[in-house]
Amino acid sequence: MRPSTVHYGQARAVQSQRQRVLAAAYAENRERFPRGLPKVPRPPRQAWINKPSKLDALPFVLPDPAQANHDTLAPLTL
């Protein structure tokens, strides 16, 4: 499943359509499915095109107003 499908909330619709196709194929060709009706895997909870590193996931805070450079964000030190 493509990350954009999950991102735009289309995963359930795609999953349902895939399951209908598999059920139709199973109904017509049961001998090709020795383990019974195949099931579509659950959609992933998250999908990434470029997964952020742990460093990118750190929370950010606005810089101290007393500092001269006000147009940048500084990482929060924990």
Total helices: the number is 2
What order do the strands of the largest sheet run in, or round the barrel if closed?
1-2
Please state the CA-atom Rg, rounded to the nearest Å.
23 Å
Which structural class matches the secondary elements?
Answer: mainly alpha
Model regions low in confidence, pLDDT < 50 over at least 5 residues: none
Tell me roughly what share of residues is in helical segments.
Answer: 25-40%
Taken as a percent bin, the fraction of beta residues is 5-15%
How many runs of DSSP E, i.e. beta strands?
2
Tally of individual domains:
1
Q: Tell me about the biggest sheet?
A: 2 strands, antiparallel
Distance between the termini: 36 Å
Task: Please describe what this structure looks like.
This protein has 78 residues and is mainly alpha-helical. It has one domain. Helix content is 29%, strand content 5%. It has a two-stranded antiparallel ribbon with strand order 1-2. The protein is rod-shaped, with a radius of gyration of 23 Å.
Summarize the structure.
By secondary structure, the chain is mostly helical. Helix content is 29%, strand content 5%.
Helices and strands in order, then pairings?
Elements: H1 3-7, H2 11-28, E1 60-61, E2 74-75
